[in-house]
Write a structure and sequence with these properties.
Layout: E1 14-18, H1 20-23, E2 33-38, H2 44-49, E3 53-54, H3 59-67, E4 73-74, E5 77-78, E6 83-87, E7 90-95, H4 98-114, H5 119-131, H6 152-160
Parallel strand pairs: 2-7
Antiparallel strand pairs: 1-2, 3-6, 4-5, 6-7
Helix pairs in contact: 4-5
Length: 161
C-alpha cells in the first residue's frame, strides 16, 4: 500500500490504515483518514517538519470523554502508549509499543470482519481487545444476515510475530 500522501519517510515505519474509513463497508467518508503507525524510534521532529501537529485534549473534553467511555484507557487511566498527530484530515496514531500496535490492529480487524458501523460499538471492541476492559451497558448488536467470518488463526499470527 502506498503512503506517500502522508508526507513522511516511511522506510522504518509499519503503517496500517484504521478507523471508520477503513473498517466500515461502505466506508464513512465524512471523517478523518486514520493511520496506525508503529515506529522503533521517536519521529516527532519528522512529523513536525511534514506539517503535523500533536493533538492534545482539552481538560473539559477529557472529562466528557471519560463520562462516555470513549477515551482510550488502561485501568481507568488514559493510555500513554501512543500519540496522535494531525494534518488536515489525516490523523496518525503513533506508537513505540509493538503490543499496542498489534492489539489495535486486531481490534480493527474484528471491527472490519464484523462490519461494525456503530461508533460506540467499535469503541467497546477496541477497549475490550486492547485493555481487557468493558464499561457501560452491553450494546445490542445487529449482525449482518450472513455470518461474518473471523479468522482467529490470522489474529493469533498477528500476536505471534
Amino acid at each position: 500500500m502506498e503512503f506517500s500522501h502522508l508526507g513522511i519517510d516511511t522506510f522504518y515505519l509499519t503503517i496500517t490504515p484504521t478507523g471508520s474509513r477503513f473498517n466500515c463497508d461502505p466506508p464513512v467518508m465524512n471523517t478523518d483518514q486514520d493511520y496506525l503507525i508503529y515506529t522503533p524510534c521517536d519521529i516527532s521532529q519528522e512529523l513536525i517538519a511534514a506539517g503535523y501537529t500533536k493533538t492534545t485534549i482539552d481538560p473539559a473534553d477529557l472529562q466528557q470523554m471519560k463520562s462516555t467511555q470513549s477515551i482510550p484507557k488502561k485501568g481507568g487511566n488514559a493510555d500513554e502508549t501512543f500519540e496522535s498527530w494531525r494534518r488536515d484530515d489525516i490523523n496518525l496514531i503513533v506508537t513505540l509499543s509493538s503490543e499496542f500496535y498489534h492489539k489495535h490492529k486486531v481490534a480493527g480487524y474484528v471491527c472490519k470482519a464484523m462490519n461494525v458501523r456503530d461508533k460506540d460499538h467499535r469503541i467497546m471492541i477496541y477497549h475490550a481487545v486492547m485493555y481487557g476492559e468493558f464499561d457501560g451497558p452491553i450494546p445490542q448488536f445487529s449482525l449482518p444476515r450472513s455470518k461474518p467470518t473471523i479468522d482467529f488463526f490470522a489474529i493469533n499470527k498477528v500476536f505471534s510475530t
